[in-house]
Design goal:
alpha/beta, 8-stranded mixed sheet, 8 strands, flat, 451 residues, Glycerol-3-phosphate (1)-acyltransferase, 61% helix
């Protein structure tokens, strides 16, 4: 019961912080049986919350043992059954020798969970980081799987989980979670020499994780490829309904992988082909800069600009605003101060990019609950506890409406501005569509996009 309540609270908090959380491959997790979810680790405890709230089965988490050093986080660890792992670096900083026996109890707990057919979440990189590629994997995940195998736990599956954040520290951005092909521990160990079992499992896991994550040689290369993939994704997208939001992050990630394949293949290409690819990418970047300078979402260049379509757009959005704005305003009135305060404090107290999201989510949850309690108490004292209860029930719904309303209103204003600009200068829209058509054709000719 406690797990279900906490997972629902975490799900609401994540949906408030991130605009979208896309999940692909959740069906890779079997309905029953022992499973280790092995995820990359870029965003501290947010990674664990996203995985745990995106899988239908109950997921038992692992976390660094330093969480036990603080009263609040210690209470969370003990209440939710998180398995604390003592990292070598933390032990050395604490003045301990950090010997390999430090996690014997934790390993036994993991094996017990797997033995009962449970699901464990492990972060095999061992650290949360902002690097452009996977950090070298520790052997802990493989050793846990091997210990379970030797303890008679049959059928353990290790499933690689890739988490990609659009801007991990920025609210109202996107997250993409992809689960890869399961690794059958029993079958893998059956073909591995006894003294190479851990290395074999770790190598298989690394290969699986690289299939579901983005890996670049530098931050600069990562930023360029991701920007290009977002532009390319929108270039091949369609005019979206305002309620749909932007091009899915999953499509941008797939295109980023394709662009990275081209980058790796460049040395084997002819000089003529290299020049052609580079010319295309430079032209794509110039096109993106031009559209951005016009304050236009790229998808919107295909909008209809007839008088009739403009009138229908204005009437439809005005009606929606009239209906939705009061609810959104009520949500904004009750949540703006605690959420903005949490965002400011979360960013101000963070020492690295891995901390703002988690701190903001935790602080926001605390501030919101305190606000709810204070206002509900006041309403109960003035108008009665029935009204206070109705107030509490309505607030999460009103906050969600506020987020959706604000984002739709922003998109509507962008589209209205683009409509007026194209009406005033029809030639501009024609030029943009013509350039987009050329870029589409060249991208397909160069095999830069996925079929």
């Amino acid at each position: 019961m406690l797990y279900a309540v906490l997972r629902q609270i975490a799900r609401i908090a994540l949906r408030w912080y991130y605009r979208s959380i896309e999940v692909v491959g959740a069906d890779q997790v079997p309905a029953s049986g022992p499973v280790i979810l092995a995820a990359n680790h870029n965003n501290a405890m947010v990674d664990a919350l996203i995985v745990a709230t995106s899988i239908d089965r109950e997921v038992r988490l692992t976390a660094k043992a330093t969480l036990l050093d603080h009263p609040v986080t210690r209470l969370v660890v003990l209440a939710t059954g998180i398995v604390p792992l003592r990292r070598r670096a933390d032990e050395r900083r604490a003045g301990n020798d950090g010997d390999v026996a430090r996690n014997e109890d934790a390993f036994r707990e993991v094996v017990t969970t797997l033995g009962s057919g449970g699901v464990m979440l492990i972060f095999p990189e061992g650290i949360s980081h902002s690097g452009p590629q996977l950090a070298p994997l520790r052997t802990g995940c493989a050793r846990m799987a091997l210990q379970a195998h030797r303890s008679g736990v049959a059928g353990v599956q290790i499933i690689p989980v890739g988490l990609t954040f659009e801007h991990k520290a920025s609210p109202r951005t996107g997250v993409f979670m992809q689960l890869g092909q399961p690794i059958d521990v029993d079958a893998t160990l059956a073909t591995a020499p006894d003294d190479e079992m851990v290395e074999t499992l770790t190598a298989r896991l690394e290969h699986g994780l690289r299939q579901v994550t983005l890996n670049f040689p530098s931050h600069e290369e990562a930023l360029r490829v991701l920007d290009l993939s977002r532009t390319l994704g929108r270039l091949f997208d369609r005019l979206r309904e305002l309620s749909e939001g932007d091009t899915p992050l999953s499509e941008s990630v797939a295109l980023a992988r394709r662009l990275d394949e081209i980058r790796l293949a460049m040395p084997s290409l002819s000089a003529e082909m290299i020049a052609r690819v580079e010319a295309f990418l430079n032209r794509l970047e110039r096109f993106a800069r031009r559209v951005t300078a016009l304050h236009l979402p790229l998808n919107d260049i295909w909008m209809p600009t007839s008088v009739g379509s403009g009138v229908w757009f204005a009437v439809r959005e005005s009606v929606l605003i009239a209906i939705t704005a009061p609810i959104a305003f009520w949500g904004r009135l009750n949540h703006w101060l605690p959420l903005r305060g949490a965002l400011w404090l979360g960013q101000a107290t963070s020492a690295n990019p891995d901390e703002p999201a988690m701190r903001t989510i935790v602080l926001g949850l605390g501030f919101v609950l305190v606000t709810y309690a204070a206002v509900a108490t006041a309403i109960g004292a003035i108008a009665g506890w029935m009204w206070a209860l109705l107030y509490l029930i309505a607030l999460p719904f009103a906050a969600s409406i506020d987020f959706r309303f604000s984002e739709r209103l922003t998109r509507a204003l962008h589209r209205a501005r683009g409509y007026l600009r194209f009406r005033a200068n029809p030639r501009l829209q024609g030029e943009l569509i013509e350039e987009a058509a050329w870029l589409r054709g060249e991208a397909e000719s160069l095999n830069l996009v996925l079929s």
